[in-house]
Amino acid sequence: MSTQLADSDTQTAGFTRPLLLTPAQDRGGWLMGHAGLAALMLVTATSVVAVGLIFVFIIREAWPFFQAQGFGEAVSGTDWSPEAQGQERFGMLALIFGSLYVTAGALAIAVPVGILTAVLLSDMVSFRVRQGVKPIIEILAAIPSVAYGFFAVLVLAPLMQERFGLHTGANALNSAIMLAVMAVPTIVSVAEDSLWACGRELREASYACGATRAETLLKIVIPAAHNGIIAAIVLGMMRAIGETMLVWMASGNACQIPHPWYDLTQSVRTMTATVAGEMGETPKGSTHYHALFAVGLMLLTFSLVLNLLTEYLLHRARRSSGGHA
Amino acid sequence: MQLNWRTLALALLAVAAAGIHQSAVAQARAEKAKPTLQIEGSTTVGPIADEFTEAFGKLHPGVVITVKKTGSGDGIAALIDGRCQIATSSRMMKLEEFKKAVEKGVVPVTHTISMDGVCIIVHPSNPVKALKTEQIKDIFTGKITNWKDLGGADKPIVVISRDTSSGTYESFTHFVMGKDKMFEKVEYVNSNPQAHSRVETTDGAVAYVGLGFVDAKVKALEINGVAPSKKTIQSGTYAFSRPLFMFTNGYPELGSPVHAFCTFHLTEKGQEIIDAKGFVPVTNY
What we know:
The structure holds two protein chains of two kinds.
Chain A (H helix, E strand, L loop, with lengths): L1 H10 L11 H54 L3 E2 L7 E2 L2 H32 L2 H13 L5 H20 L7 H25 L3 H9 L4 H12 L1 H17 L2 H6 L20 H9 L7 H34 L5
Antiparallel strand pairs in A: 1-2
Chain B lengths: L3 H30 L2 E6 L4 H14 L4 E6 L2 H9 L5 E4 L5 H9 L4 E15 L7 E2 L1 H9 L16 E5 L4 H11 L9 E3 L2 H10 L3 E6 L8 E2 L1 E2 L6 H6 L5 E9 L7 H6 L5 H9 L3 E2 L4
Helix pairs in contact in B: 2-10
């Protein structure tokens, strides 16, 4: 016992701090510890509270609209003419359709491209190529959306008209392509990280069993990384559905459901573009003002539902794959 | 003693916060002491008023100006209620409004600050040179959807409008649409230059912009036989033209900020701004 103490004494010879705290120091330490915890909690709570407050604020501003107009016309009507004196119409169906339409179009392009790129970078090229290419792809995410918008209006739109004979270059296809370009870096980055994280052991075990590279990729690595891949797709989807400036510039903003519905070469208008384009000049407190908040609420609800849905699917997939995370 | 640096940091933070608060209070007091100028009204005149405010702020740094764009009627109502010193308007005051103003002891004085002319533009290759107001209305309501019905090539019309919150949209609605709505295929862009570049790059497009945005890359159509120009817009022979106003309560005291603002359109800078915003300055030369 005594020798141990002596030992520890010699070990802490250079340590001048007294081991015994005075009651004041003890209280001080307790206080500072809890103050620190409280401060960190506060910082963390800020973002949670912010989300809550955003919801409260938007619901409060949207409520008068639903009270006056009801849900029926908002979700079933396609006529959005908020400024027509005496015959205002607030049908949001075309806007909702527009948002989902360009998002689906963007994902149809960005998901295969993004995931295939991620597979190539993680498993098929040398480490040095990966280290060089990945940052370049990620730079795409750093370009401001208004720059993409300029490209869409001044380059892609005339190209579509001249080369492909479309009547108008500002259309759903244009927006979908540009949104795909914007979503690809997110998808590549997250998916590649999760493929990479599967580790060497898994791949080598597969090769050791005699599997080819294709078999290893398709049957081992991709299934093992499916969580991250789904997360990548969700993030890409959120990027696309929430994008505003680009769709406001590139989609043409015609308030219609294309006819026939699968015709991507017609103009559509998204919920985000409507809010961004009309909010600035709308008199505060008017029906139009509240209607724009109702559109915002729809958008928020949509992204929330999509988020929860993918969470649920992820959860189910996780359980069926035997708890592998 | 070991906690001292924390105490010190906290004390410093408190002092800094108090300092910031102090200076903020002082600033707020200074703002309050400055003369303020409330401007309210037309969304059409709004962009001019905004630019005037910016240029004006450099010349008269002591004046705090707020510009609200709520609509001509709201601006005039605000002037009558004494909620603003200058009401901007894209129309003359109505007799009812005038009576109400006089009842409340307000003498509305009109300042004509510029002319507003909306030009209909198409791609230079489009053979159509002139249209009538009714035909333009039919294009924007979707009754006419192909240029061949207007004497052009067999090509669908791509109809482009400004966003519904812009002053130009408001002017166009006033001149052409009346009570009718645009049809659902109309595309919307959010600035005059964007409308211009869409028409420049699209064969079948038609759009409307202020005269300041018409150049050789697009073609402005004759309306009811009159081509848009400064002259025709000023004289009103061009169909889509109207004066824009500012109203004040009595003629503003000479040398006051209100007077300076209401006569700003006569200065060189003011005329430049009006030109740049796509409107036509009121001049005799």
